[in-house]
């Protein structure tokens, strides 16, 4: 794998994990307020 592909993979994985955490936080706050 070339350097650019590795950098893209790292970026997308980081972006996905941040989105997953945001979604989990939304679900948790929805459960707490319900």
Automatic annotation (TrEMBL):
This is Uncharacterized protein. It comes from the Bacteria.
């Amino acid at each position: 794998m070339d350097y650019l592909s590795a950098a893209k993979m790292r970026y997308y994985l980081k972006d996905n994990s941040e989105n997953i955490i945001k979604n989990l936080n939304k679900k948790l706050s929805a459960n707490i307020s319900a």
